[in-house]
Amino acid sequence: MEIGLRILALLIDVAFCFGTLPLVMSGTGWVLEKLGGLALVFIPFWFILVVVWPLLYLAIPTGLWGKTPGKLICRLKVTDCYGQQPGIWRSLGREVLKILALGSGFGLLLTLFQILYQGGSWYDHLCGTNVEFNPYVRLTQTQKNWRKQMKK
Q1: CA distance 20 to 53
Q2: Are 87 and 94 in contact (CB under 8 A)?
Q3: Quick one: DSSP state of residue 130?
Q4: pLDDT interval class at 67 (50, 70, 90)
């Protein structure tokens, strides 16, 4: 079950990441428009931004909270070997290795095999991280009170 949730979380994150990329690009385009003639100098940075934006989008939430929006929806959490949030640098390394693994055909097959049969991927083992599934959803007191009111 975890492999399906991990794939679904990755697809949701890719949709969010590349869905927000036009907003980031238009914001930088506005800055380049204001620069006038200097804009040609900064056009190569757009290509760098296309590569860096997915890394930042995946690494920062994973490092700070252990979850990206896709992992939050699928109730997955990335932790280090001590059960804490992995931190920015560890999650950045994890995401770089994950992009390299999923970008190559052999890496994708190896990752799927390891998740299915060993419970974790090689980049998780290398970075010292674990992906955990939280099957229970804790209700807040407001949600509990609302459910009590709805039962009446």
Answers
A1: 9
A2: no
A3: E
A4: very high
Across 15-24, 88-97, 111-120, which has the greatest mean pLDDT?
88-97
2-33 burial by CB neighbour count: b if 16+ within 10 A, else e? eeebbeebbebbeebbeeeeeebeeeeeeebe
- For residue 37, the model assigns a pLDDT of 66
**C-alpha to C-alpha distance for 139 and 128, rounded to whole angstroms:** 31
pLDDT category of residue 27 using cuts at 50, 70 and 90: confident
> What is the domain range of residue 25?
2-151
Residue with tokens 């679904």: 8
> Considering only CA atoms, which of 69, 94, 85, 91 is closest in space to residue 132?
85
If pLDDT is split at 50, 70 and 90, which confidence band does 121 have?
confident
- The C-alpha atoms of residue 66 and residue 77 are separated, in whole angstroms, by 5
Total number of domains constituting the chain: 1
